[in-house]
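hey all, quick one before standup. I had two proteins in the batch that finished overnight and I want to keep them in one place so we stop losing track of which output belongs to which input. First protein below, input sequence then structure tokens straight from the run.
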Amino acid sequence: MASTHVVAQLTTAPDAQQWWFRITGGALLYVLSTVLLAIAWYALLRALGANGVPASHTLTIYSVSQFGKYLPGSVLQYLGRHAMLRAHALSHRLLVLCALLEAALLVSAALIWAAPLAVNYVPVNAPMIWIVVVAGLTFAGWLLHRYAPTLGGGIEVSPRWFALAFALHLAFFGMMGITFRVVAGAEIFATTGWLTMFAGVAASWIAGFVVVGAPAGVGVREAVFLALFGAALGEQATLTCVSAFRLATFGGDLIVFLVALPFAAAARNVRGAT
């Protein structure tokens, strides 16, 4: 019944057109979110000493490979990115470490955004979580600065670039929250409040990320969001919002992929000619 309601709400309901206007606006905003992730990936490469890959190539590779998260297994984006950057003579060790660091920074940034919801489920408050996350990142940064260069593979650690990457990941989740606000509408946010809703978006992302095998967290994020807000917003309204949000994020990823694809092909042809 709930899924039937969602389909009807987005197709035959009197306000269906308004939903699609908001979905389109959300997709365009989510393009900016994906661009933030691509820039953060470039910052991580620079943080590990990968200075030989032009920023334009890095952003193109990330934008094209990122769409692989929608395929079964949800790992093809990492494999594609790794393979394409290996063509630029980056070592396996550097690229694997970069992928692991990206995952750690993304989860850390999401935890900072999701922290206001923690008090409802565990005996800690948001400031405690923020302190733990920042302390953990600081310690991890010290370990990297001291030991990562010993791994070889051309790894040289730059804390300044790491800080920039983390700031961009924080901005990514902020942009995700804004995208959800545009798609869901003002009434939904008025019910829960901005901070709580942004926290819910980040918490649902964490769930979709850690559940291995779910393409782009499909189904997992929606289930978590329903568990968090279904009682307050109503099951049907919540499902409609998260379904529309999923369409917007998929649309944003698709736009980035299609725009970047010709640039990736041109770069491949240049490398082939040389």
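OK second protein, same deal, sequence then tokens:
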Amino acid sequence: MTTLETSAGLLPARTAAKEPARRTFRLSRISFGLVLAWLILGTALLWAIAPGLFTIYNPIEGVPGGQLKPPSALHLLGTDSLGRDLFARIVHGAVHSLSGAVAAVAVGLVVGTGLGLFAGAIGGRIDAVIMRFVDVLLSVPTLLLSLSIIILLGFGTLNAAIAVGATAIAGFARLMRSEVVRVRRADYVEAAFGSGGTFWNVLRRHILPNSLTSVIAYTAVQFGWAILQLSTLGFLGYGAPPPTPEWGLLIAEGRNYLATAWWLTAAPGFVVVAVVLSANRISQSIGRGR
């Protein structure tokens, strides 16, 4: 058989010929849609971190006589009813929408994952009580539960984030419990217990790390969902108060000018949809990779 010299020794010629094809196949798996999703999400994160790099306009103060100007070279997305640059308001609003989404996902992830972990690992009555609580949360519509919590806590971006995060607890808990139950029955976990490992040590070293694979992918989905929920609450007037340039509030402010200034609603709405779809696409990629 013909062979090729390599640094590792001798390889069959047919095996060596397959290596370029495998590399090409791996590169082709990185689709244009995934690259675009990362670019969109990365741009939104840069808006939140350094908005001054993208616009020089003040998102709060308007320009007299510059009301409802259409998109132009001076104002990329036009101006609103008070003469404020819409692009500047969208860029500066990223910090409110994205930080609220991160806080909401953090609440759901920490609380929901903790409940699911203990329910699946301990089992018995504790499992039954926790999962009945999760069933109660799932039985209440998410928007109704969010509004109820906001009414109790008050308006604002942080309170809206807590309310949205509370509605995500049930999903994280159910997913984490199912993963823990699956991992708990694995042979290597039983071997760890058989070799003298304590419950908390095995839980920390074996069960928890191997149960987080699906939760990580689900977190990206919840991030996009949280942005959508926060925008909905802002549109209804339960999020950040004016003149905060929150994305949902921007859509609500422009709905009265759809006939004369459609860009006031279309532009922030397009940004919300693009960021949510990008987060979902990245979540699908993480799920397939794992």
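Flagging for whoever picks this up: Residues 37 and 278 are 4 Å apart (CA to CA). Confidence is low (pLDDT under 50) at residues 1-11, 13-28.
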